[in-house]
Amino acid sequence: MHKTFIYQHTFKLENGQTLSEFKLAYNTLGQLNADKSNVIWVCHALTANAHPEEWWAGIFDKETGIDLDEYFVVCANIIGSCYGSTSPQSVNPETKTSYGLDFPKFSIRDITKSLDLLRENLGISKIQYLIGGSMGGMQAMEWAIQEPSKIKNLILLATSSRHSSWGIALNETQRMAIESDSTFFENKKGSGKKGLEAARAIALLSYRNYNTYKVTQIDKENTTDDFRASSYQNYQGQKLSKRFDAKSYWYLSKAMDSHDVGRNRESQEKALAKIKAKTLVIGIESDLLFPVEEQKFLAKHTSNSALEIIDSIYGHDGFLIEVKKIKSLLKKTF
User: Where does the AB hydrolase-1 domain lie (predicted)?
Assistant: First the structure.
């Protein structure tokens, strides 16, 4: 059920800037029990929405142990995203026009702070299972550090305790592509569309890998043009630009770069030690964006944790595609 949470107070961001208010679009599945102890909270990745039953099809059914007759699932569209939450497309109450590039920059910590305000508004004292992959994993991890007593079980997929220089470089390259589209700087709907398409094509190379394309994008012999891999890149770029906003993408990628659980906490190791939740870390063997070594680091420095590695040709996107394998791992937890 689609709902909206409106926080009608000044919201101070980590960088000192503020939003006079914000709203979060969120979705729920299943029924909350009497003592509100059956909550599963899903944190979404970069361009997803508040409907995990759409972008993570197959995870939420009785076969996985995530039985919607038993659990209450919450997923909120994060600040900065373009699916109903406060973002660059929202109206700035001071100017009465959309924020555009005047929207304040925000961090992963700001996102989790806003999610925790929603949790309080829903009257949820503890989250039974907090789940997130990729950028969603960053949020879940940070939340479990900020509010360790509120999270009982934590499931992290294809993520890291600090966004790597490699990941930041990839994001910056995508932003360069967006900024090369001169319309991006216009404060109107659809601006930066072609730049976003190029950015998505760049991103896709880090989401997949050599073997993915070797298996899925092979051409017939004697082809000299119109390659499958070429059309695939264009298709994926256009597919995203039809549903997502370039400025949201630009801001969210900046937030992703901000992720460092060790910032102002002495170290990543000491920050991870604050997590009290029973933790399952899932990595993808062929992931170029969040290599397995990052998952091993998380498991090593998070107490009461287990590490599982999935073999997949799909690279980072394996955390979305390898549903059967993820189901089997979740069965051990639920």
Answer: 39-320
For residues 287-323, one letter each, b for 16 or more C-beta atoms within 10 angstroms of the residue's C-beta and e for the rest, the string is bbbbbbebbebbbebbeebebbebebbbbbbbbbbbe
Burial 177-194 (b: 16+ CB within 10 A, else e): bbeebeebeeeeeebbbb
222-228 mean pLDDT = 89
pLDDT given for residue 332 in this prediction: 81
- Tokens 């910032």 belong to which residue? 263
Asked about 287 being catalytic, the answer comes back as: yes
Count structural domains, the chain. 2
Q: Which domain holds residue 132?
A: 2-164+259-331
Amino acid in position 1: M
265 and 152 housed in the same domain: yes
Say if residue 35 carries a ligand binding annotation.
no
Give the long-range contacts of residues 9-16, CB within 8 A, separation 24 or more.
11/110, 11/113, 11/114, 13/104, 13/105, 13/106, 13/107, 13/110, 14/106, 14/107, 14/109, 14/110, 14/258, 15/104, 15/105, 15/106, 15/107
Residue 1 above 70 pLDDT?
no
User: Is 265 within any annotated ligand binding site?
Assistant: no
Residue 65's pLDDT band, with cuts at 50, 70 and 90, is low
Query: 56: which 2 tokens?
Result: 């993570």
* 128 and 221 together in one domain: no
Of residues 163, 259, 301, 316, which has the active-site annotation?
A: 316
- Whether residue 301 lies in the annotated active site: no
